[in-house]
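User: Hi! I'm working on a homework problem where we have to compare a predicted structure to a textbook description. Could you give me the structure for the chain below?
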Amino acid sequence: VASVWLLAVVPFVSSVTAASEAEPLELALAGDDGACAAGAGDECGMSLRQLRGELLAVEAQDHSWWVQPGNPCLCLFDVDRTLTGKQDYTSGCKNNEVLEPHIYDNGYGGGDLTLSELAQHMGTSACGEQCTLGIVSASSEEDRFGGMLDKLKSIVKGGPMKFGCHPSEKPTCAEGIAEQHGYQLKNVYFFDDMTENVEYFRHTQMNARQVACERDPWSKGHLLGLCGATPAEASLTKGSTPADDVPT
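Assistant: Happy to help. Predicted structure tokens:
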């Protein structure tokens, strides 16, 4: 009986919680005890109590990645040299943090995961305050093993993450996330440290901004960011803005 009730009620409860995340899930079943008392007996009451237990267990899980209707925008971030900085390099990036205990980051030669200022203080940025957060990265998810993947999830508050997006396909990946979660393209904002990755968004309806404009002098062609992004750079600026066009 409990399994039948669970299958029947959970879709209804999901719609209730989507409309009002603040309400405890058990309120979706308010009044059901009265229905049981009307003649269904102890078995019904026990089934509902079990169901409530299941629902409360679900409520205790982290569902922060669910897109909330109140979030008017979607901010998507590159990983390497955007949410991260050059590994183990803090002498020239004094606001970056090498995590303790160390987490391995295999990007661009590898080293200890070093968070950019933005990754540490996402909640103080315009994106963190107003928008759903997510990731669009060229790296494969398999590369982001163990603690690093878990850390990325926490930075974007469990938001949608799309890996394996070739730079030229990042707009397509971003559009896919927006469509899946019901965002208008004009309300999508993408952030990346590389000029070409921002340029790919120029003829889309989405917005893109190059961040981490200080270049890594040790990278080939000086194409990579050095310290990663700052909270101020994660702004809701319209259009596609490479570093040369970013106001100082």
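For your comparison, note the following. The helical segments are 2-19, 32-40, 42-60, 117-120, 126-130, 146-155, 170-181, 195-199. The longest helix spans residues 42-60. Good luck with the assignment!
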